[in-house]
């Protein structure tokens, strides 16, 4: 973020539902979020659970949590309540960033998890009383680069990504900062990315495909990502034509749905 905010500050980094965020804007929002999370007491090694649809906020959380040295715990939006409850408890998360549409779900498991009132950041309007408004939290913070004092090594935990739990309860796979970097570098080399590329992200960011194979490599290269909150085949085709998308990565089933729409 810092590199491209300096080299190409006006370049569009993210396009989400027609809202555009330049590298300068994205970097500033990440710095503000770092400052606020640090104010909340988040430090290196702390777990932060994220329950969000694809959006610019997901990317902001990804970078802010990473730079603090805290550990991102993505939650699959399609999991049942008992599975979500288990992951939050098993990961040791004490902070959550969630979308307003999941308020009822979170409220139902709140008594059974270790996250306390005041440690919930909610994205949206008319948020529950036990949470903090995400956008207002960022507004409170000054625009400045936040200096994290704790050093972060390549083998330090970066993400705890849980399996689908097909052989029992979900299992947390600990991914290091070094593993994330080489995943990003491998994707960059494989796709042959350039700063002029436009990468359409239709896979969920709670999955490594959407976050580590798609979004992170394109931002690493200084290009543009277009985030889709939901996968709608015809909308994918319209977006490709409208924004001259150069790269798309999706599952075979998704391509089948797209072909069926043609």
Please, could you describe this protein's structure?
- This protein has 262 residues and is α/β, with parallel strands linked by helices.
- Helix 2 crosses helix 6.
- The model has no long low-confidence stretch (mean pLDDT 94).
Distance between the termini: 38 Å
Q: H/E series, N to C?
A: HEEHEHEHEHEEHEEHEHEHEH
Unreliable runs, pLDDT <50, ≥5 residues? none
Annotation field: number of helices: 10
How many β-strand stretches? 12
Identify the overall geometry.
Answer: globular
- Strand order in the sheet with the most strands: 2-1-11-10-12
Give me the oligomer status: single chain
The SS-based structural class is alpha/beta
Write out key terms for the chains shown.
262 residues, alpha/beta, 5-stranded mixed sheet, 5-stranded parallel sheet, 10 helices, 43% helix, globular
Task: List strands and helices in order, with pairings.
Elements: H1 2-7, E1 12-16, E2 19-22, H2 23-40, E3 47-51, H3 56-68, E4 71-74, H4 81-91, E5 95-99, H5 103-109, E6 120-123, E7 132-133, H6 134-140, E8 157-162, E9 172-176, H7 177-191, E10 198-201, H8 208-221, E11 224-227, H9 233-243, E12 247-248, H10 252-261
Parallel strand pairs: 1-11, 3-4, 3-5, 5-6, 6-7, 10-11, 10-12
Antiparallel strand pairs: 1-2, 8-9
Brief summary of the model shown:
The chain is an alpha/beta fold.
């Amino acid at each position: 973020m810092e590199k491209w905010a300096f080299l190409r500050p006006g370049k569009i980094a993210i396009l989400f539902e027609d809202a555009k965020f330049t590298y300068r804007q994205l970097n500033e929002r990440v710095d503000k979020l770092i400052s606020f999370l640090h104010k909340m007491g988040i430090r290196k090694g702390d777990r932060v659970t994220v329950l969000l649809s694809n959006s610019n906020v997901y990317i902001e959380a990804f970078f802010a949590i990473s730079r603090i040295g805290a550990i991102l715990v993505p939650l699959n939006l399609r999991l049942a309540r008992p599975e979500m409850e288990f992951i939050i408890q098993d990961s040791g998360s004490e902070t959550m960033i969630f979308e307003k549409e999941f308020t009822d779900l979170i409220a139902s498991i709140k008594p059974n998890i270790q996250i306390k009132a005041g440690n919930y950041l909610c994205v949206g309007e008319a948020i529950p009383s036990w949470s903090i408004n995400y956008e207002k939290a960022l507004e409170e913070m000054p625009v400045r680069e936040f200096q994290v004092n704790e050093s972060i090594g390549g083998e330090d935990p970066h993400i705890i990504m849980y399996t689908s739990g097909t052989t029992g309860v979900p299992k947390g796979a600990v991914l290091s900062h070094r593993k994330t970097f080489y995943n990003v570098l491998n994707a960059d080399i494989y796709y042959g990315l350039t700063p002029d590329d436009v990468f359409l992200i239709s896979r969920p960011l709670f999955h490594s495909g959407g976050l580590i194979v798609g979004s992170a490599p394109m931002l690493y290269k200084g290009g543009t990502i277009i985030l889709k909150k939901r996968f709608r085949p015809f909308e994918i085709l319209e977006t490709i034509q409208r924004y001259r998308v150069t790269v798309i990565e999706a599952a075979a089933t998704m391509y089948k749905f797209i072909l069926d729409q043609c």
